[in-house]
Structure formats: structure tokens, C-alpha cells
Amino acid sequence: MTKILKMDERLANMIAAGEVVERPSSIVKELVENAIDADANVIRIEIFDVGMTKIQVTDNGSGMNLEDALLAFERHATSKIKTEYDLSRIHTLGFRGEALAAIQAVAKVTLKTKTETDDGVQVIYHGGHFVNHEKATLNRGTVVIVEDLFYNTPARFKYIKSEQAEKNQIIDIFDRLALANPAVRFQLWIDGKLTKETFGQNDFQQLIDQIYGTSFAKDLITFKERMQNIDIEGYLVSPKISRTRKKDISLFVNQRYIRNYRLTQAVIDGYHSFLMVNKYPIAVIHLTIDPQLLDVNVHPQKLEIKLMNESLLAFQIEQEIKRALEQKTHAIPERFQDIYRPKEEQYVVQQFLFESEAESPETSPKIPDMEFIGIFSGTYLLFQNEKGLYFIDQHAAEERIRYEYYYEKLGQPQKSQRHLLIPYHPELTKMDWLIIHKHEEQLKEYQFAFKNEQLIGCPVWLRETEIDIALQDIVEQLSETNTIDLAKLRDALAKDISCKSSIRANHRISLLEIQQLVKDLRACKNPYTCPHGRPTIIKLSHYDVERMFKRVVS
Ligand code: ADP
Ligand code: MG
Q: Do 454 and 470 form a contact (C-beta atoms < 8 A)?
């Protein structure tokens, strides 16, 4: 049975026309996408002379019968959409029926193909003209050979800027296709040499190893989230490795590579505190979305896609990345190490910090006496003393202080309850309330009292502005474990409350507040890092500064 139909004119016009074959790399992309659409799981790409003499793509997909193989070369011949209704549910990569038609017009094309049941066939087109068809012997699947590209349109040659640039472009496209299709086995042969391959085992650690290299796959951080019917999967290369360009932030929607400024920025922002300025992460984000919520027809090469709820999605991605990185890395932010490029890593905070100064911990304070000299970038408080220059990250310090406060308070649940004169309406969903009511008895022990959907009493130590955070954390834990695990709750709550209620970066604080901050930090059990492990205070000794100015040689 014939699978390919010619689209009606109106439908064809609904689809933005695009130039599909402006250069060899775009041909590679189209041919490989066709193989993926044909459900191939092994795809071999061979390139000679950056594709100018020969591009060959071999797949083990569904193949075509003779009738389809002939039709495949015609403009707007596609097996993928037949009606307007289909257009809103596209799940294939191609659907315009333009690629093969356009390629055969500017090259010599041989297509060999075989379905499970039909005999193999070969169809040849040269420069837009049908040459012949005959029987062919091959396994199920398709081989497309494109030779002498642009032989009949010499003007096109000018688009090929340089061999190396084109080769890089082909490798980029290969990387994206491979990262988009972790279950497909890819091989890229360039001038007879196997240049890159993946194993198609649906394993991102392995895939990132094959695409980027072993050191990139090491410490790979992953997360999976579902939000409003969108599945988000992230594969984050450790921030210890970074790039100077955004190119290696790869976004995929339904296994289609896309460009999207907002979401790319969200990834960068998620990595923000872990990377130095002007450095970009290497990350792969896969989104799975109902095709009806997408408009894939925005850009002729389908790289740009309109997403609904884009801001919300961006926010979610940023938060997920932050959370995942904070959990997994206890690394000192690169920013610092990179700026000064220490020879023997002695700038790593724990080492160059205060341990050595606090010779006898009882007598000398953990945080030394220092003179406040200013604020840098609205966030970092600068101090000096005879030993050197100190930076305190206002936000991180405040987080540490609040964390220890709450950790202690939560550790000794007092019996004193604060009755709220005006009942409080917490920001909780119906589902949350079900959970709260189910555990009301247990919550009473922690001095929380409820009446219907109102809070009428809470522990004395809980500030009014922090009630919502606390209740949301409690609900989250109850819904996950069905019980209150005090040790865990204590840590989670302390972290969350401290993080969410601390001074935000860029908030202007008064001198009085600064003094209080240093005093409180000094009183902390562990003043050197925030609850997520980032440093609160960093020191540059006189020696460090002199070395940076090359006044001393180390
Ligand atoms: P589109 O992919 O937009 O449908 P193309 O010109 O790329 O248009 O391909 C035309 C048709 O040829 C496809 O719809 C598909 O049915 C068939 N086809 C092309 N390449 C392959 C392949 N490798 N395996 C099976 N069918 C293919
Ligand atoms: Mg196609």
C-alpha cells in the first residue's frame, strides 16, 4: 500500500516554505531526520570532501516500496501529514515533503530502499531529472547517496565558507542529533575515518562521554521533573567545566533541537553562582510536551518553536538546575578560582581561610576583627585588617545565620504556642489541606493549630512572614513520607526558611545591619559556608594581592 500522499495546495501553503539545502550540513540533517522519522535505530553517516563529493546516510528504518520511493522525490510529497488536523499533532521531524525534492534538484541522488515485505529498489535522480529505477539488494532500511552537490548550480558554491567551518557544522549537527536521540546508534565517518559514534543505549552519561569526552561525563548531574504536563529532563555537566560560548547548552523539545533565548538564559541563570562571569555551562535539557501545545511551524528549519507558558517553564528550569547543582556540588564557585588561576589551588576556601588563624579556638574568634570598607556589587561586603582583604557574601552569610537559628529552634520544640488573634490563611492547595488535616494531631505537637482552613496557632519562634514556607515544607514532607521525620524536617525547614527569608542580594543594608550580621555570623557554629555549602566569607591575604600584581613571584 502506498503511504505517501501529495499534500493539497492549500495545506502546502500553510506551511512556511524554507530553503532546506543551502549547504552540505543541512543535507546531512535532513537525511538523518528522515531516517529517525522512519524509526531507524542505527544510522551511519559518511561524508567525503565535507559533503561536496559525497554524502551517504544509511539507516535500518522502515524503508519504502517502489511507488513511495518514486513519490518521495516530488515536492510536497510526505507520508507524515495529510490533513490540517495532523498538522497540529506533528511528532515527526520532517513534514513538509521538501527535502528530497530540493536535494535531488541540486545533486546526483541514488536512493536504495527496502521494506520488511517488498523487494529492494533503487531510484536515481540527477539535477532534478528522473534517471531510472531498478531492483536492488539490501537489508530493510534506506541508503541515500548524494553526489556532486551543486554540480549544476555553481552559484551555490559561494555559501561554503571554508572546509573547516563546514566540517565543524556537520559535527555540531551530528552532536545535536545524537543528544536528541539517545536510543539511536550513530556513526559519523569523515573521508573514510570513523570520527564519532554513539551506542544508542539511552544512557546520557555514556552519550555525553561520547559526544564531549570522559571528563564531561564525570560528575554528571541529572534531574527529572514534571510540570503542567511537561516532562523536563536535565543532564548537567559539572560546573567545574565551562565554555566561553552558549553553544553547548542544548535544548530539545520532543527530541527536536530548538533554539530558545528564554530557556537558554534560564539554564545560564540556574548555573549562575557556580560559574564565573562570561562562562557558560554545558547542559542538555529535554522537554516532552503535547504537540498540540506547540507551534513547530514558526521557522522553516524548525529550530524555533513557540512554547506556551514560556516564562513559567524558564523559571522552573532555572530553579531545578539551581537545586540540582546545590545538592550535588560542594564545589567552590569557579568564579573565584578562575579569576586568579591559582597554581596550587590554595584559594580553595577551606584552605586559605581561618583555620590557621584560629590557633586556639577559645581565644581567637572564628571571624577576625575587621574594618568595614565598602560594598561591592551591592552584594559583597568588604572588610580589611592587618592580615588582608575579606569579602562577605551578604546573602550567604544571612542564610547561615537564619539556618542555625532555625535549626536550633526546631531541635528543641518548646511547648509555647502563639495564638493568632486574626486567623491566618496559608497559601495551601486543597490537596495540601487534606494532608494537614490528616496529620493534625502530629502537627499539634509542633504547636501548629488549625481551624478548618485557617491557622490559629503556631510555634512562638516562627515569624509571621515565614509561616507559608514552613507549612509548605511540612506538607511536602508529609506527602512524601506520610510522617514528620524531625531530623529531616529540621534540616529542610531550616534551609528553606533561611534561604527564602534572608536578605536578597542587592538589597541595601545599613551599617547597623552590617555590624549585626558580622556579630551573628561570628556566633555561628559553622560560619564559613551557607547551608548549601557556598562560602560566606573569602579572604585575600596581602601576599595573595601582591602576587596578583606580580609584586612577588611565587
Ligand atoms: P518529509 O520528511 O518532510 O516528509 P522528505 O522530502 O524529507 O519530506 O521525505 C519525503 C518522504 O520520503 C517522507 O515523508 C518519507 O515518507 C520518505 N522517506 C524519506 N527518507 C526516508 C527514509 N530514510 N526511510 C523511509 N522513508 C523515507
Ligand atoms: Mg524529511
A: no
Kindly state whether residues 300 and 352 are assigned to the same domain. Answer: no
If you search the block for the grid coordinates 560559574, which residue do you land on?
Answer: 275
Q: Distance (Å, rounded) from C-alpha 275 to C-alpha 534?
A: 12
pLDDT at 461: 77
Q: What's the gap in Å between 34 CA and the centre of ligand 1? A: 5
Q: Do 115 and 16 fall into the same domain? A: yes
Same structural domain for residues 163 and 258? Answer: no
Ligand 1 centre to CA of 313 (Å) is: 33
Nearest ligand to the CA atom of 103: 1
Q: In this predicted structure, what is the pLDDT of residue 485? A: 73
Q: What is the mean pLDDT of residues 310-336?
A: 74
Query: Strand order of the sheet with strand 371-376?
Result: 371-376, 380-385, 388-393, 537-541
Ligand 1 centroid from CA 72, angstroms: 6
Residue-wise pLDDT for 225-239, tens only, equals 988 788 999 999 998
* Strand bridging mode 249-253 / 283-288: parallel
* CATH code: domain of residue 233: 3.30.230.10
DSSP labels, 206-265: HHHHHHH-HHHHTT-EEEEEEETTEEEEEEE--TTS-BSSGGGEEEEETTEEEB-HHHHH
Whether residue 7 has its Cβ less than 6 Å from ligand 1: no
36 and 171 belong to one structural domain? yes
Which pLDDT tens digit goes with each residue over 302-320?
556 667 778 888 989 999 9
Closest Cα to atom 23, ligand 1: which residue? 35
- Give CA–CA dist 279/414, Å, rounded: 48
Average pLDDT over residues 81-110: 73
Q: What is the grid cell recorded at 486?
A: 524531625
Domain presence at residue 286: yes
61 CB near ligand 1 (under 6 Å): yes
Q: Is 175 in the pocket of ligand 1 (CB under 6 A)?
A: no
- Ligand 1 atom closest to residue 144's alpha carbon, by position in its atom list: 23
pLDDT on residue 242: 79
With a 6 Å cutoff on the Cβ, whether 31 touches ligand 1 is: no
Do 235 and 276 fall within a single domain? yes
Of the listed ranges 35-49, 102-116, 209-223, the one predicted with least confidence: 209-223
Query: Looking at the domain assignment, is residue 406 inside a domain?
Result: no
Tell me the three cell numbers of residue 444.
Answer: 499539634
Q: Give residue 94 CA to ligand 2 midpoint distance, Å.
A: 4
pLDDT value at residue 207: 95
- The residue range of the domain holding 487 is 414-460+464-500
Q: Are residues 120 and 192 in the same domain?
A: yes
CA–centroid distance, residue 57 to ligand 2 (Å): 13
The residue among 171 and 362 whose pLDDT is bigger is 171
pLDDT value, residue 258: 87
Same domain, 357 and 433: no
> For atom 16 of ligand 1, which residue has the closest CA?
79
Cβ of 97 closer than 6 Å to ligand 1, yes or no, is yes
Looking up residue 142, the CATH number of its domain turns out to be 3.30.565.10
Find the 28 Cα to ligand 2 centroid distance in Å. Answer: 11
